[in-house]
Amino acid sequence: MVKYTTDEDLELLGELGVETASDKPNQRSPREERIIAGFEEIERFVEEKGRRPQHGEDRDIFERLYAVRLDRLRDSEECRTLLEPLDSRGLLAPETDIALPPEADLDDEALLASLGVAAAADDVTQLTHVRSRQEIKTAEEIAQRTPCLDFDTFKPIFDNVQQDLVSGVRQTLKYQDNAAVNQGDLFILDGHKVIVALMGEPFVSDYGRPDRRLRVVYDNATESDLLLRSLQRALNKDKASRRITDPDLGPLFSHVEAEDDVQTGYIYVLRSQSDDPFITEHRLVIHKIGVTGGNVKKRIASARKDPTYLLADVKIVATFKLANINRKKLEALLHQVFDSARLELALPDRFGTAVQPREWFLVPLEVIEEAIEKIRQGTLDQFRYDLKSASFTSLC
To answer: Of 290, 283, 306, 279, nearest to 364 (Cα)?
Structure first.
């Protein structure tokens, strides 16, 4: 190996682009490295938020920590000398016009102690036993859940949704990142059914992002006033979260038929002509609600021999033509809506076996028509049928 020792050799190497200067050892002490690392965290905060960290009880633990740290760095001549060449944003410039709160006099360790956490000894950049921002936010959101005082209003919704899921009227889908959330939407979160009962007015958060305050009710009779983004974050974090769909019936019916419509049958409403005293007394509010894919008149031709029709002739009082729809799901939905008004009546068939028809209800015709209209409009899940008043009441 040739050893170059002369000035000419060094000059030649320089002309050839060969680095001849020996690497300078790192002259910074561990303390200086920690000071720089702590300052870089503040710079990252400023880059992310677009502003300096601020004091105040309404700020999160990290921002308050950075604000105190920045005050200390400004006050220290040693720190200013070290950091000023790195301070491209002018963060070390004094803010003499700002009155600092008492917590500004605390060091990192004292501030963290006042907040119930601890810092690692002699290290302003490392925190121990300190939860991440996400963990803190999640804990705060859970802690904000309170008893739902009007849960009786929401319990029927959750009960109906469960029946819908069992019958297949509703489905559950994986919640997708940034999926829309609207008032009335239903989800499964942390093993609980959740309904977005109310949505507040839109606003822009401190971070420049659109957000809204929600009233979220859980099936365990609690509620919270989550932010929209907090709910979305929780749904994204929970790998088992699901969106509960609206009743999956397909297009229902319209006043105008399209060329590509596939006729799938009828909703029919029947009234019994039985001489039974109870039926005679309540004839105008006792109706059979069904869905068929065939001709309604042919279906009821032998009604007087069939316990399903109360062993008596029946009168067709209303029909609704269907197209492109799942008949079984629609029928299950209608029966579920009026389940509390189901007629409990057992009749013997021709072999003497007791038969209890399940499609007869004590419901006025106009209420049945109202239910069908709400299905067509997609708003039925916002109401429940009240047996005492024989009418729909809003759930919102």
So the answer is: 283
Per-residue pLDDT of the chain (396 residues; tens, 9 = 90+): 444 445 555 565 555 555 555 444 457 787 788 788 888 888 888 888 888 888 887 777 778 878 888 888 888 888 888 898 888 888 888 764 444 444 445 555 555 554 444 444 444 444 444 444 554 454 445 446 788 888 988 998 898 888 878 777 777 888 765 578 888 889 999 889 999 999 888 888 777 788 889 999 999 999 988 889 889 988 988 888 888 887 655 555 544 455 555 567 889 999 999 988 889 899 999 999 999 888 898 889 999 888 889 989 999 988 888 877 778 888 888 998 999 999 988 777 667 777 788 899 999 999 998 998 888 777 887 888 988 899 998 876
Cα 297 to chain centroid, rounded: 47
The dihedral through the CA atoms of 92, 97, 102, 103 has a sign that is negative
Rounded to whole angstroms, the Cα distance separating 155 from 158 reads 5
Provide CB contacts within 8 A for 149, sequence distance 6+. none
DSSP string, 56-120: STTS-HHHHHHHHHHHHHHH-HHHHHHHGGG-TT-TTS--TTSPPPGGGGS-HHHHHHHTT-EE-
How far is the C-alpha of 68 from the C-alpha of 106, rounded, in Å? 7
CA atoms within 13 A on the CB side of 240: 6
The tokens for 234 are 């929780």
